[in-house]
Q: What sequence folds into this?
């Protein structure tokens, strides 16, 4: 007789959420005063996205948000993480807000609160107003000050209703995929610019945190969402350990160093001194960046495996961020990226819940006492409706069960993890991959934009309602 399975039970106050971003779902890119962001420009540039696809309509959330919120409530979600489109609120990235743009987010937040769903607002999920990019973008210091002004505007408009605030989503992608490898908007390939962008994103975070403190009630929470890599050496040889340290600096230390500790790793400066002299780090910058946080968001998909290679090109990330002749890892040409073993998602990313456990426990040590949220975690699969129109995705259910179990194990071991946001609520525009990769718990028919909750959405909703993970066989 098989041993009974011990239920995986979460704390009563644990938040069960799903996440999206503005450009991936909203559409309505030319309505109510919105102007182009770098992703509008990038996706309309031939050869930049799969099939030349773009977010002009996306999944039309701008017009369907009420139905989408009702769907979230029906599923049993207790939290929803969304991002604000900067160019919908402040079309040039400067000056006064367009109130009709802010009104959309006011209506969305009111709709969420009316059904008991906590809103978590991300100020920046990669969609810089094009006018600011034309002025130099994130490699320019002025962009950080513009971002702080934008944060103040949104904070004053929504601070009375939104308790959870996130300044930046995955600044690593903004800096190194946007300005280094060029596989993300704005598509630039300049190693020095990518490092300048990283610093100014750090500065933007610090300035925005201070601006929000002056604009929102003290009870509210301010965080940042980092896609910190779980970097593993291929062996314990000194060369492989040095390679892992170099990538850890470029993936993690470049952001959490200033944000959490008020300093950059000295080894990062040494590894990149042939690329930049870091003279743009001005006196007092690290103080401005190192603002007290109320929480930290962690985004996790797959670990990174590296080894030393005397003449290797770092090339694209092994976790599937896209192919490019340009590296997103400045100063790491002597590091080779290896494919981690195991089952993979449609993105080619290895499924490894131990990486999420390791990430959570690492940041429990890096930032003792700081509450943690898993602000993104999920998987893309080739989901298709059956003849009755139902969408069964047992692979995603197994993925979620494994990763949520890893979260619970970390909590049992002392980590203060207060919520989990599944990526993503629904299928959407997946950046340079266009619409070919489906991360959603809800299936979207792109021809009709009809939404159909997949079996994983029902499974996750049951977990949200009960606080207990259903077994995989219960799906």
A:
């Amino acid at each position: 007789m098989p041993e009974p399975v011990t239920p995986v039970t979460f704390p009563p106050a644990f938040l069960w959420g799903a996440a999206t971003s503005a450009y991936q779902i909203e559409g309505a890119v030319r309505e109510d005063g919105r102007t182009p962001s770098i992703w509008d420009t990038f996706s309309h540039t031939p050869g930049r996205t799969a099939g030349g696809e773009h977010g002009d309509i996306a999944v039309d959330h701008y017009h369907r948000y009420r139905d989408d919120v009702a769907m979230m409530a029906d599923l049993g979600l207790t939290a929803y993480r969304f991002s604000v489109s900067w160019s919908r609120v402040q079309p040039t990235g400067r000056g006064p807000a367009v109130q009709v743009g802010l009104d959309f987010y006011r209506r969305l937040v009111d709709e969420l609160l009316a059904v008991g769903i906590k809103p978590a607002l991300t100020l920046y999920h990669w969609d810089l107003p094009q006018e600011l990019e034309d002025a130099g973008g994130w490699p320019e210091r002025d962009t950080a000050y513009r971002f702080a002004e934008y944060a103040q505007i949104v904070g004053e408009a929504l601070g009375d209703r939104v308790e959870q605030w996130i300044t930046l989503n995955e600044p690593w992608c903004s800096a190194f995929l946007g300005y280094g490898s060029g596989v993300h908007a704005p598509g630039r390939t300049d190693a020095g610019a990518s490092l300048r962008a990283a610093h100014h994103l750090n500065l933007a975070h610090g300035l925005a945190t201070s601006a929000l403190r002056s604009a929102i009630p003290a009870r509210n929470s301010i965080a940042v969402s980092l896609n910190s890599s779980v970097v593993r050496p291929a062996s314990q040889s000194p060369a492989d350990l040095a390679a892992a340290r170099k990538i850890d600096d470029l993936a993690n230390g470049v952001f959490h160093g200033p944000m959490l500790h008020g300093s950059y790793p000295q080894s990062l400066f040494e590894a990149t001194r042939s690329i930049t002299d870091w003279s743009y780090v001005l006196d007092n910058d690290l103080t401005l960046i190192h603002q007290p946080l109320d929480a930290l968001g962690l985004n996790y998909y797959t670990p990174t495996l590296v080894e030393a290679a005397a003449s290797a090109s770092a090339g694209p990330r092994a976790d599937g961020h896209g192919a490019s002749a340009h590296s997103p890892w400045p100063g790491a040409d002597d590091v080779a990226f290896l494919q981690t073993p195991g089952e993979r998602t449609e993105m080619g990313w290895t499924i490894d819940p131990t990486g999420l456990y390791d990430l959570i426990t690492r940041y429990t040590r890096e930032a003792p006492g700081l509450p943690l949220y898993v602000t993104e975690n999920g998987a893309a699969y080739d989901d298709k409706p059956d003849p009755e129109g139902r969408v069964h995705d047992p692979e995603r259910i197994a993925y979620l069960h494994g990763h949520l179990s890893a979260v619970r194990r970390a909590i049992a071991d002392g980590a203060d993890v207060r919520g989990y946001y599944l990526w993503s609520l629904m299928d959407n525009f997946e950046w340079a991959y266009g619409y070919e990769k489906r991360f959603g718990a809800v299936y979207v028919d792109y021809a009709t934009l009809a939404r159909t909750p997949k079996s994983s959405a029902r499974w996750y909703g049951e977990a949200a309602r009960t606080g207990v993970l259903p077994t995989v066989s219960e799906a």
User: Anything to note?
Assistant: Confidence is low (pLDDT under 50) at residues 312-322. The two ends are 22 Å apart (CA to CA). The chain has one domain: 15-474. The longest helix spans residues 191-215.
